[in-house]
C-alpha cells in the first residue's frame, strides 16, 4: 500500500466504522451524526440499502423499494446539511407500512387485485416524514387486508422474525417491526386497531406507540383506497429502538389534516412526571377469568421487580376499591362489537349467518359479539358508541389515581408461522403452570384491545428475552391525549435497565 493512498484508506475505514456503529443507533442519533458531518446522508442510505440487500432475502421486511428517489432525497439532504439546514430527521432513512400511500408507489395491503393501485400523492404520514427531512427507502410488509397477527400475503410473500426466521414478527405492522429490529432503518410508522403496532414490537423487542384515537391523521392509508373518513378505533403510530424516538416521531405526525388545521391544532401535555419513582402505576397481571400463561407471568414479574427496585408505587386490581377499574370483560365484548362494525366490508356469508341465527338472544360472549358486529343496526351501533364514551370517562376517573396502567401485550412471544385457514381456527401453543396448552386466534386480543376501545395511548416496551431467547415486552397505557406520559414511563425504564437488544447475527460487524 502506498503512503499516498493511506489517508483515503484511513478515511474510508473511519467512515465504515461510523456507519457500522449507526446500524442500531436511534433515529435521533443518526440525525445528530449527519448534522455533525460524521457521515453523509448518501453514505448512510447506501449502508441501509446494503444491509437490506444482505439480510432481507431471508426476512422479507421491506417489500417495496424506492431506491432512485431515496438516493435523490439523500443527495438533497446532504446539500441541505451543507447549507446549515437542520430538521429532526434530515437525511435519516426510514420505512413506512405498505398501507400508507407514497407518491408513485403501489399500495395493495397485500391484495392481488390492488396491484394497480399506484398512489398519486403522499399520505399524511409520509408527507410528515419527508417534511422532517427523512429519506423514505420504501414500504414494509403487511398481512392480507391488514387482518392478521402475521405478515404474509399473495403479493409480497411472508415476513420472518429476525430473532428466529421460523417465527412471525407479528402483524399487521410486522414488516416494519422486522426492518427496525434487523437494523435496516431506525424508524417505521405503522397502524394499530388490534395490537398491530404493539404486538410486533413485543415479538421483536422494540418500542411501539399506539396513539390516542384521533390524534394522528390517517389520510391516504388503509382500505378502501381513497377513503376520507378515518376508520373507527384505528390509529397510526411509530415503531423504534428507543422510547425517545417514539416521542420524536409522535411530534412530527401531529396536526397533519389540512381541513382541521384551519381552526384546531393539538398541543400535547407534557409527561406527568420526570422521575420514575413519582409514577403511580397499576399493574394488571392477568385477564379476568383467564389463566395467565407463563409468558404473561414472566412479563408481570419483570415489571414488578423493576418497579420495586426503583421505589415506584404500584398496585394490582385486587388492591382497588370496587368500581374504580372498568369491567374488562364487558369492555372487551364492546370492543369486539365496535371492531367488527368498523370496516367497510361485505355482510356475513351464509355460514356466518347460520351461526348468527343460532345464537341465544342473551348470549353476550366475545364470540357472539364478533358474529353480530358486521350487521348490527345503526341504532345498536349508537348505543354501543355511547357505552364507549362512558367507558372513557371511567378510565379518566381511574387516571386520577394512577398515571399509567401496565399490562402484558400478548399471551405468548413470537409464534411459528402458521398459514392455515380460517385463521380464527388456528391453535397456538402456550405454556401454562401445568404444561403446554393451545390458545385461539381471538385470545391474542384481550390485552391488545384494552386501550383501543376507549382510544387511550399505549406504549409497548421491551423487557429482554425469555428462556427460549425470544423477546418479551409489556405495554404502558396512559390517559387519553396524554401520550407523552406512557412514552416517558417507558423511557425512564429504558434509562434504568436498557431496552432494545439487537437480534443475534445482525449486530455490529455483521
UniProtKB/TrEMBL annotation:
InterPro entries registered for this protein in UniProt: Amidase_dom, AS_sf, FAAH2
Superkingdom of the organism of origin: Bacteria
Domain Amidase intervals: 44-484
Family annotation (Pfam families): Amidase
PANTHER family hit by this protein: FATTY-ACID AMIDE HYDROLASE, FATTY-ACID AMIDE HYDROLASE 2
Stated name of the protein: Amidase
Source taxonomy: Bacteria, Pseudomonadati, Pseudomonadota, Betaproteobacteria, Burkholderiales
